[in-house]
Structures are given as structure tokens and as C-alpha cells.
Amino acid sequence: MVIANMIGVGVFTSVGYQLAGVPSAWPVLSLWIVGGILSICGALCYAELVAMLPRSGGEYHLLREAYHPLAGFMAGWISLIAGFAAPISLSAMAFAKYAQAFGLQAESRLLAASLVISVAALNLSSVKWLGRVLTGFTTLKVLLILAFIIGAIVLPGGTRNSFTFHPGDEHLLLSTPYAVSLVYVMFAYEGWNGAAYVAGDMDKPQRNVPLALIIGTLIVMALYAAVNAVFLWRTPWDAMRGQEEAALIAAKSIFGDSGGKFMGFLIAFGLVSTVVSMLLAGSRVNQRMGNDAPFLSALAKVNSAGTPWISVLVVAAVSLGMLLTGTFQQILSYVECLLLASSGMAVIGVIVLRWRKPDLPRPFRVPLYPLTPLVFAVMVIYMIRQKAFDDITEIVWGLLTLLVGVVVYFIGSKLKPIPHDPGPSNTSRP
Predict the structure, then answer these.
(1) C-alpha 62: how far from chain center
(2) Helix, strand or coil for residue 104?
(3) What is the per-residue pLDDT for 255?
(4) What CA–CA distances, in Å, run from 263 to 48, 232, 271?
């Protein structure tokens, strides 16, 4: 679940945007190392929180317990509007572009919408069967990245770029383009918290969720650093700069035109697991909101397979709406600052709960506390601040999204009260 959530459209597209603002190999590679370290810090903090409060719901559940039901609702609102629907639409759009490059003749938005609808139908089945499908697609995706790396090392000819450190590279590390590029990298790492969304569906969540979060994040960090080194080493930078199909360009450079088209098809195929896992996680957040908020109770309704079918359809519908109205980079910029703010609040929740509820059992405790959550939180504030300096438009849209969420919360609360859940009701699979 963690690996499937993380390895998605970001790693196959981000390097093109990074080279546009950070035109040097070592600063670009450092972005992936910094992003991995931040994701590990976040994963360690989530591991403590979910082991202590082992229920599905992700940030909705964690912020609700650490702060107030309103904070939890806002995190759930972000998840409902942008947190899962936007990455699903982004992955579907990338799927369509790679499929077209392979030769599939169809309009890109139609291809993307077809994928979302098909995966939504798949998500209406049982979690056990869905898990098997997810494992198969995720395995394919990891093998694809390994094929990129091995092919770049073994195959002769083609581009061989230098990794020489240039004077002035150190100044790029403090520049606004570097901070904005880090936002794109964090989008690529988004999903390190994937296991937190389905904790209630897991056996022994106090043990297995921390393991999944930490091991999954470490594996993806190693793969990301290696594959982006390959992109930078074996692909003409001018060809990738500013292009969202960076992985396809790299594949053609490494494997030739025919081989590149086939690798593009495999990339498209591998993106299916991202859409599957995002729909699975997003529907469980909506289901938890439906359980807690009577005016959203329809989101908690399940079918005969135990799947929250209305929640699945809601996530799919919002994703389809974004496909019809947004562009790739606009959606990416819009969603990432909201997600960073939500995860940053959850990480600070480790400190808040240590102070508010020191006696709660903590099967896992964050190493290097309080440095680990503080490093993550400070970097989140830094990235959002720099993104605001670069382009305030998406920040404004994000604030408007939150404002609408506050209005919905208070209107819904007047219809029926939202009860506060004092703690997890169970710690095992239903």
C-alpha cells in the first residue's frame, strides 16, 4: 500500500520541472535525498500516532484526536476535495499520455476517464481481492524502475551526462526554484503515509503499520534516488526540461525509439496501481468521516463485499471533474500545499499528544524526539512560504477550499452534532 501510493506520476514527471529551475545534476539529486529524509521523518511520526490510535482515516483521524473535531474535518475535507482525487486525476492523465505515446489512438481525457471508471468498479470488490491486484501492479512498477536502472548501466551508446559539481551549485540550494522543486519532489513522495489510511483493515496495526510506513518509505527513497540519477545521466537535459513526460523521453534515450515506446506502455500500466491504491485509501477516509458525522452518514454505507461504495463513487466523481476542468501543473500546485499543511499538522500532533495525553500507550516512539517532528514541520512551512512567493494563485485557491470546508462543517453541525470519538474502538480487523 505504501509503495503503491508513493511510486506514481511524480517520479515519472518531476525531473523535467526541476531542471527548468535547477539546471544542475547534484542539486537535483539532492532534492530526492532531502525529500526522502523528510518523508522518513514524517513516516516515523505517523508510526507513533497510528500505533497509538490504530484506526483508518489518516489525517482526518489523527488531527481529530490531537486537536479538535474541526481540525479532523478540515483534513478530511482536503482529502475529499483534493488529497486523493487530484493524485488520481494526475496519474490518469499521465497514464493517457504514455498510452498514446505507445500508439493507443484515443483522446487523452477519454483514456484517463476510462481508467478512473474502471478502477472505481474494481474498488467495489473485497479488500482482500483488491490487495492481490494491488500487489501485482506494484511489483510490476518496481520491476520497471529496476529495468530503467539496469538498462542505463548495461546498454552502450547514447547520452552520458557529467555529474561534475559546478561553482554556484551551492547557491541553488537556497533559491526559490529549489524550494518549489522540493514541493514537486514531496508530491512524488506523497503516499509515505498510505498505511495510515487503512489501519482499521490491517491485522495487528500497532506492529504492521509502523513497519509498512518505515520500510516502504526507505525502499522508495532508494529507488527514487537511483532512477533520477539514471534520468540525469542518460538523457539530454534540454529534451526533458519543462516536460511532464520526462520518463518517456528518458526511456527513448536509453532504449531507443521502439524500446522507449514499449517502456512508456509499461509506465502507463504501472500507474494503474497508483489509481487503485489512492481510490482505496480515499474511500476509507470518507467512510470514517461518514461514521463520525451524521450529516455525511451516506459515505459510510457498504455493499455486500464490505466496501464503502458511495465513498468510492464520490472520490471517482471528483477525480473525473478535475480531469475535465484542470491542467496537469495547476492541479499539482493546487493540491500539494494543502497536503503538506495537513501532514505537517499531523506530525506536530506527536508533540501535542505527548503533552496532552502522556499516559496513552505508545507501542512505537519517534526516534530523536522532538527533533524529528520539528524538522518536518519547519521544512513544510519553508516550502509553503516559498511556493507562495513563487505563485500565490494556488495558495489562494487552497485557502478558499478550506473556507468552504469550515462553512460545510458548521452547517452540518447544526443539522446534527458531530460526536467526538475519545479513542479507537478496536485495534483489529473488522
Answers:
(1) 17
(2) coil
(3) 84
(4) 39, 17, 12
Task: Cell 490518469: give the residue.
Answer: 92
Would you state the cell numbers that stand for residue 245, as one nine-digit string? 513526460
d(CA 430, CA 421): 18
Question: Would you tell me how many other CB atoms lie within 10 Å of the CB of residue 312?
Answer: 25
Measured on CA atoms in the order 5, 9, 10, 12, is the torsion positive or negative? positive
Question: What is the distance between the alpha carbons of residues 385 and 376, in angstroms, rounded to a whole number?
Answer: 14
d(CA 18, CA 184): 8
Q: Identify the pLDDT of residue 371.
A: 94
Over the stretch 77-113, which tens digit does the pLDDT of each residue have?
A: 887 776 788 788 888 888 888 788 777 777 888 889 9
46 in Cβ contact with 312 (< 8 Å): no
CA 147 to chain centre: 23
Question: What does the pLDDT look like over 297-343, one tens digit per residue?
Answer: 888 888 888 888 999 999 999 888 888 876 555 666 666 778 888 88
pLDDT tens digits along 110-138: 889 999 999 998 888 877 787 788 888 88
Nearest-angstrom CA–CA distance, 112 and 108: 6
Give the number of other CB atoms < 10 A from CB of residue 156. 4
Confidence (pTM): 0.77
Q: Which three cell numbers stand for residue 292?
A: 463520525
pLDDT at 424 over 50: no
368: left (phi over 0), alpha (psi -120 to 50) or beta: left
Stretch (H or E) spanning 107 = none
Phi-psi region of 57 (alpha: psi -120 to 50; beta: other; left: phi over 0): left
36, 358 in Cβ contact below 8 A? no
Kindly list the domain boundaries of the chain, sorted by start residue.
Answer: 2-415
Q: Hey, what's the cell of 206?
A: 500497532
The single residue listed with the C-alpha cell 480487523 is: 429
The class level of CATH for 2-415 reads: mainly alpha
